[in-house]
Automatic annotation (TrEMBL):
A cellular component annotation (GO) from this entry: membrane
Topology of the protein relative to the lipid bilayer: Single-pass type II membrane protein
Pathway the protein acts in: Glycan metabolism
Residue stretches in coiled coil: none
Name this polypeptide is given: O-fucosyltransferase family protein
Length: 507
């Protein structure tokens, strides 16, 4: 831009005390507004261009789903969801009480055995007015899962949601840790005990020991003969306080959504896994080599007391899981069609795809989590069997029909959870009678039509309908399990006494 000489001369004279510097043309009054307007215009256009490119990238990410773009897209979705999410519920008033001591617990077993144990221990702490330390999870069992409590459950929610009942802390205070280092009592409370045992035999110990450590927690509280409030607290812990972590919840919900998008589905808890077969001694359908392998595994674990087991005796007593081949016949007899979508809720099936061949031939729409999810989604759960089990637990609870082939801890807890949610259909197989029918059909004694009708008739009243838990005096281990049928928590809503008008199951 050309500058008039008289203007330059005038400016030079005015700035003689400022090293005689000539200002740039941008400082001239006539050009100042236009230059600022240009800068502002360039900035606005650049911003519009950058955001347009970013939005296009996100849109492409939705189609191609590379992990980086997918992550960015999901992040912005999450932000939008957070913006409309309701505020968190206010905390319940904290229960104020004089603590009689600190209770530490180390859970043993798999995920669902530990889950039931946590419910028991919270209730014991409440009854004895103790301070509970967040439970430690089993890391030394067959599964060798290194997960801590907060890797599986939402610890903050667990502590906050029970604050009106019991004081729960993440760990013992350091000062107390040092003080009780040599005075910590470790014990295994007696299994299937009532509140009387804890009140009369456990509580007095806290007057001598400030901290007591329960090193075994499975089935340490009775099924029956307990106050209703005691039972209802167990339900509250199980169905409300023990919430999975956001990471597990997100993936479990995704699995359920993917299945439901394809229609109704059956969750088949096929407990035909190596540990189950080895420790139960059930080798029906296995080769001699496999049976020997399972036996060696049983002997390799000294804590498992039973070593010599006759498989066929166990099977005839209904104490073995159904084989995949038997499960195929039973599902067909129950009336499930070939196009039924079946989700296999289990770990690795012993014998892998060779043993699943018959079941897959009968029901081609068999899926597992590994088939539905991106490998990257499951990578974070590898070598964490309890976290994997949590995914199967969520899908099983959400299924249209749940069918366990063995009544282990997962089967029982899923059954109870579905009862609590409104008696969703669970087909509870009578394995003792089933193996008799299976043998009669397979050796040609009865035809397929008779086999199918007998199987359906046998299970008409085994669909998870409302009912009261059976008690067996002096034989608590043979009773109906509390967590499979927590009738104290559901029978106020429905009639559990066999009235046909109020005992239908969601189908």
């Amino acid at each position: 831009m050309e500058v008039r000489s008289d203007v330059v001369h005038h400016l030079r004279n005015d700035n003689s005390n400022n090293n005689n510097k000539i200002p740039s043309s941008s400082s001239l009054p006539s050009s100042l507004p236009r230059t600022r307007l240009q800068v502002w215009f360039i900035r606005v256009c650049s911003s519009i261009l950058v955001w347009t490119l970013f939005i296009q990238l996100v849109a492409v990410g939705e189609l191609w789903q590379p992990h980086l773009l997918k992550g960015l897209s999901n992040h912005f979705k999450a932000v939008r969801l957070e913006e409309v999410a309701p505020p968190p519920a206010p905390l319940l008033p904290q229960r104020v009480y004089k603590s009689n001591g600190y209770l530490k617990v180390s859970c043993n077993g798999g995920l669902n055995q530990m889950r039931a144990a946590i419910c028991d221990m919270v209730t014991v702490a409440r009854f004895l007015n103790l301070t509970l330390v967040v439970p430690e999870l089993d890391k030394t069992s067959f599964w060798a899962d290194p997960s801590n409590f907060d890797d599986i459950f939402d610890m903050k929610h667990f502590i906050d949601s029970l604050r009106d009942e019991v004081h729960i802390i993440k760990r013992l205070p350091k000062r107390l840790n040092r003080k009780v280092a040599n005075q910590l009592l470790e014990m295994s409370p007696v299994s299937w005990s009532t509140e009387k045992y804890y009140l009369e035999q456990v509580l007095p110990l806290f007057s001598k020991y400030k901290v007591i450590h329960f090193n075994k927690t499975d089935a340490r509280v009775a099924n029956n003969g307990l106050p209703v409030d005691f039972q209802k607290l167990r339900c509250r812990v199980n169905y409300q306080a023990l919430k999975f972590t956001p990471r597990i919840n997100a993936l479990g919900n995704k699995l359920g959504r993917l299945l439901k998008e394809k229609g109704t589905f059956v969750a088949l808890h096929l407990r035909y896994e190596m540990d189950m077969l080895a420790f139960s001694g059930c080798t029906h359908g296995c080769t001699e080599t496999e049976a020997e392998e399972l036996k060696r595994m049983r002997y390799a674990y000294p804590w498992w007391r039973e070593k010599e087991i006759v498989s066929e005796e166990r099977r005839s007593q209904g104490l073995c899981p159904l084989t995949p081949e038997e499960a195929a016949l039973v599902l067909q007899a129950l009336g499930f069609h070939r196009d039924t979508q079946i989700y296999i809720a289990s770990g690795e099936i012993y014998g892998n795809e060779r043993r699943l061949a018959t079941l897959r031939a009968a029901f081609p729409r068999i899926v597992k989590k590994e088939m539905l999810l991106d490998p990257m989604d499951l990578q974070q759960f590898q070598n964490h069997s309890s976290q994997m089990a949590a995914l199967d637990f969520m899908v099983s609870v959400a299924s249209d029909t749940f069918i366990p082939t063995y009544d282990g801890n997962m089967a029982k807890l899923v059954e109870g959870h579905r009862r609590y949610l409104g008696f969703h259909k669970s087909i509870l197989l009578d394995r003792r009678k089933l193996v008799e029918l299976l043998d009669l059909y397979q050796n040609g004694t009865i035809p397929l039509g008779r086999f199918s009708s007998d199987v359906r008739l046998m299970h008409e009243k085994r669909l998870g309908q409302p009912s009261r838990r059976k008690a067996i005096v002096d034989k608590p281990k043979e009773e109906d399990y509390f967590y499979a049928n927590p009738h104290e928590c559901v029978c106020e809503r429905v009639n559990c006494d066999g009235n046909p008008g109020n005992s239908s199951v969601n189908r």
